[in-house]
Each structure stands twice: as C-alpha cells, then as structure tokens.
Amino acid sequence: MQRKILSGILCFSILVIVSLSVGCAGKNHDREKTQSKLLIIIAEGEAAGKTDTPAATLEKMAITVAKKNALEQAGGYMKAQTRIDMFRLAEDMIDSWSEGFVRVVEVLDKKTSYDEKAGGYRSFVKIKAEVLLPDIEEFKKHLDDEERSGSQKELTFEFNIIAERQLLDGTWEDVLVQDGSLLNTGDRFQIIFKPHSDCYLYIINVDSKKNVYMLFPHAQAKIGNFLKNGEDYSLPDKNKFYQLDSTAGIETLYFAASYTPMKDIEWLLKKALIADGDGSLALLDSAIKKRGSRGASRIVTGKERVYTLSDGKEIRKAADILQGNGSVVKIVWFHHN
To answer: Is 305 helix (H, G, I), strand (E, B) or coil?
Structure first.
C-alpha cells in the first residue's frame, strides 16, 4: 500500500488573461457562443509527495492546483470587468468549480525533481487553460435565484431502498442497502418514498464509469417530479425493479427534495447527461451536498413498515426519515460487484 501523500502543496500562478472572440467553423452554435466569452489563462501549480508517490499522481495534483489558480485569476478579471465579485467561494466549492469550469487546453511545461529538504519528489506544471465564463455566469444566476426563492419551512420525507438477490434455487433474499453495501450484478432494487409535504424530487444515479442516469423525473415515468403530501411512490414502479447490469464499481444514488424546483441542479444535470465529463459531475456532487448542508438535512429512523413486493413477499424494514429546512438530501453509495 502506498504511503500517504504529503499534504504540502505549493502553488504559483501568473500571468496573461486574454479573451477569445472567434468561433470555430463546423462546431455547433452553443460551442461558438461559449468560445466568444472564454478566458485563456496561463497558470502554474506544484505538488509534493513522498518518494514512493507515483509521478503521474504528483502531476495530476499539480494540475489541480494550477486549475484552482486559473479560476482565482478569472475571479479577479470578472470583478474588474463587472464590479461584481462572482468568486467568493466557500472552500468546499473551490475544487468543484475549478473542475467544472476550467479546461486544460495544453500543458506548456512540466517537470518532476527530488527535493532533499522535503525528502520526496516535487512536480511542477504550467498549463494553458480555458475558463468557461458563460457557464459560470449562468450557474451563478441559478444559485442566486435559488437563494432568493428558497423556503426555510421544514420539509420531511420518508425514504427507503428495498433490494433483493436471487439464490441458486430461484428464490429471492433481502439485501440491506446502505453506504458501503455490496450488491452483485443481477441484484434488483426498488426505491420507495413518501413526502410529508408537497415538494419536488430528484433522484440521480452515477455508475462507476461516471455515466449519469436520471431516475426521477424520467421521460417514461407516469408522473412528474412534483409530489403530493402523504402519497406513497415507488420507482421504477410498484411492481417493477431496477436491476444491476455488468458495470462493476462504485455506484452512487443522489436523492434531493425541495419545496421549489432546483434550477441549479437541473442545469447541471443537462450538462452531465450529455457526457460533459468529470467536471460536471464534481459540480453536481458539490451542489447537491450544498443543498443538504444549507437545509441542515438530518436523518432519523422511522417506524418499521411492511412492504409487499410483486411476488407477494413481505419485507419489514424501517424507513429513513429525512428532515431539513426547505430541502432534504440523502446520498447512498454501494459497491457493485
């Protein structure tokens, strides 16, 4: 097992900020529109590690630092141009914003050397990066709108995941689903929920290959994502299950409910669903977790309920009761074997 990487990361950033105004022929209109307001920034970053830290890992860490520096420079540029400071970000948001809104165009320089004083290797990179100003502006607008419209009234939601595994004799056994659970290819599960207030719900699945699946709302679902107080809902349906395919790895389920539509989440989902890469996923993960912390989401164990499955089998299981101010969030991850 590798030793823990040293936390000392040094960073340097400079330099030139220029704006592009020419779109590329043959690209779609959205890409041309985005190009017209890109910032091209030269930024530097350094990372240090122990002697057994792989060079590729150190270089990746240094690039992450350089991207943060590029975002910081873009923030200074935006403040100077618009007189609005759009980059007063909490520490937990900086990583996701630099991943989501900064693209490395070219690595201009890189080198790794041994630092005798630190007792380990140090990696240096200089990158040419694009900062996506239109995306930043649009996302910031959604965040501001959400802040203004957000309710502080308590929202309560009942939530459960029922999972089953088929045995060799053809019967099905219950499988507990919680953080870190192990589910196998072929296992099936159903999501059951009950709002205690009228609200909007979003359920998102991200598989081990970073593919994003919008489980709810879904185009084929019989209902929209506006839910009525006190009604019981099941996904994909009362007598149907999701079944795990052969894509092994870590699966994550995001569950978020709110009194008002989550325009910021909807915007990020559109980007993530068109395979916009890890950057959009980092933003999506951060935005949903921010919802949970802002709403002070908390989870308590509810009363045990009896769930009747399509084959008539009954499962007794206590539901999770999600509570929060204006919104609630629950994130469940499991190993897909």
So the answer is: strand
